[in-house]
Amino acid sequence: MATGEWELREEDDYEFDLDNPFTSPADEPIASLLDAEGHHAPSVSAAASAARRDAAAFISKVRFGGELAVHPRVAYLALNYVDRFLSKRQLPCEQQPWAPRLLAISCLSLASKMQRVAAVSIADIQRDEEFMFDEASVRRMERVVVGALEWRTRSVTPLAFLGFFLSACYPAPSHPTQVAAVKARAVDLLVRAQPEVKMAEFSPSVSAAAALLAAAGEVAAANLQAFQAGVAACPFVNSDKLRECGEVLAAACGVGPVRAAASADTPVTVLGHHRSASSASESDWTVGSAANGGGGEAKKRCMGPPSHWG
Questions:
Q1: pLDDT tens, 191-226?
Q2: How far is CA 246 from CA 172, 187, 216, 258, 260, in A?
Q3: For the chain, which terminal residue's Cβ has fewer other Cβ atoms within 10 angstroms, N or C?
Q4: 14-35: buried (b, 16+ CB within 10 Å) or exposed (e) per residue?
Q5: Are 208 and 218 within 8 A, CB to CB?
């Protein structure tokens, strides 16, 4: 492996499907998802919220960047990586204010590889930035990110739970068009709400349930009661968390409140477990500058994390 480079592991050597993060057909879907979400659910602290906001703003700018825009699912996965990283590491933003942007760029590059789309152009997405990161710096940061994620790059996100909840609420495929419309709207709501930092406080399963209830209320109002009953029957969905998540999602997307039906006969628990965050030493970050080769005003070039981070 060349210096400053990293490679996807063999099991990730094909396109990662956000709706189905597993590689083995033998996996039992919901049991495996619930077991995995505790390792993948981010929990961004208040101290990291500023860094998260800066990274999210850059990813959003790239997503809507006209001819340079990235696919929405690449942007979605990239911000998921940002959240998971910040759950485990802290960025020295006061000393290195460019650190959140380096994290965002590296997560965008990593997400594009996982989604098997056209590679993100490191130079193009930084076209209007004062500070520029070169390829080597971004590759080093990618190694830092995948290390912090413990190489679990096939993220378990709320999108992975949509199929399960839809099958629970629609046990018979009698309304395929309506089911597809509800799912599409739920995906849209999740993507739109993701930049809201409070969404990172909820487990993927709870976020998926809240999005589906909101979508059903808009797209399939006549069957909303069936959706509410189906979600309430799931023993792993905490009704209080579901209500809170629905309120955050509604505020972020400008939709009506999510109504969750509670079942007196069904115990509710949350199975997600957040791992404790570990801080990165401020001395592990360095910054240098060099003149840009192009004409006009010189741009500063940031060196990023040192090679020993890998």
A1: 999 999 899 889 999 999 999 999 999 988 888 888
A2: 26, 14, 13, 5, 9
A3: N
A4: eebebeebbeeeeeeebebbbe
A5: no
Helix (H, G, I), strand (E, B) or coil at 17: strand
Q: Parse the chain into domains and list their residue ranges.
A: 10-24+43-154+281-309, 158-253
**Residues forming beta bridges with residue 30, ordered by sequence position:** none
Judge if 10-24+43-154+281-309 and 158-253 fold alike in CATH terms: yes
Say which amino acid occupies 100.
Answer: P
H/E element holding 300?
strand 300-302
Q: What superfamily in CATH does domain 10-24+43-154+281-309 come from?
A: Cyclin-like (1.10.472.10)
**Residue 143 phi, psi dihedral angles, 5° rounding:** -65, -40
- pLDDT the model gives residue 33: 80
| Cβ contact 18:155 at 8 Å | yes
| Polymer length of the chain | 310
Cβ atoms within 10 A of the Cβ of 135, count? Answer: 12
Cα dihedral: 49, 152, 28, 77 (round 10): 50
pLDDT tens for residues 38-61? 766 667 777 788 899 999 999 998
* Residue 72 DSSP SS3: helix
Please tell me whether residue 283 adopts helix, strand or coil conformation.
Answer: helix
| CATH of segment(s) 158-253 | 1.10.472
Q: Give tens-digit pLDDT for 108-126.
A: 999 988 877 667 788 888 8
Helix, coil or strand: residue 305 = coil
Q: Report the amino acid identity of residue 250.
A: A
